[in-house]
Amino acid sequence: MFKRLFGAKRQANREITDALYGEIVAAARQPHFYSHWNVPDTPLGRFEMLSLHMFLLQHRLHGTEGMAQEVAQVLIDEFFLDVDHSLRELGISDVGVPKRMKRLAKMYYGRTAAYADALERRDDEALVAALGRNIRPDEEWAESRRLAAYVKTAVAGLAAQPAEAICAGKLQFPRAGEEGQ
Fold first, then answer.
1. Which long-range contacts (CB under 8 A, 24 or more apart) does 53-57 make?
2. Residue 37's pLDDT is what?
3. Residue 28 and residue 43: Cα distance in Å, rounded?
């Protein structure tokens, strides 16, 4: 039992999870989103971008089996642990965290359903609308078209990355603001 919990394989899996989650966070925190595309640099704006990038990887791994499916589940668990930790750092009480987590989980799954539906139907306008509605619901957001182009670039780029490489901890997202976005 101790070998399974504390063995080399467990450490290797933790390193892979940390590497992948680190890439997701780094992609979500690209300064271009906040400085040029007017994504709010607030806890909620950062949650939206982290959710979007988590969705992109989950979308890539959807339908895979074996190790890739396990990696997808571990990463979604890591995402929600990180959100929980962030809420606590923001000073949300132990009593308030579960209620907020339930609300944020509902938001995450609602957004991912809208993004997946738009991508599946190849409906650019629906993707633009979903991004705008979720990231800047308070105003008409012209940059939603740029973010939608980024999402499509990311989907294509992730599709080109072998699941085996992702499961080994290698993941690359596009840089925001590059040609075509």
1. 53/24, 53/25, 53/27, 53/28, 53/154, 53/173, 54/24, 54/79, 54/108, 55/108, 55/111, 55/112, 55/115, 55/116, 56/151, 56/154, 56/155, 56/158, 56/173, 57/20, 57/24, 57/158, 57/166, 57/171
2. 96
3. 12
Q: Which long-range contacts (CB under 8 A, 24 or more apart) does 160-166 make?
A: 161/60, 163/60, 163/61, 163/64, 163/67, 163/68, 166/20, 166/57, 166/60, 166/61, 166/68, 166/71
Which among 91, 100, 103, 107 is positioned nearest to 51, based on CA atoms? 107
Torsion-angle region of 98 (φ positive above 0: left; ψ -120 to 50: alpha; else: beta): alpha
96 CB-near residues (< 8 Å, 6+ apart):
87
Instruction: Kindly report, residue by residue over 90-125, the tens digit of the pLDDT.
Output: 776 666 667 777 888 898 999 999 999 999 999 999
For 119-147, what is each residue's pLDDT tens digit? 999 999 999 999 999 999 888 898 999 99
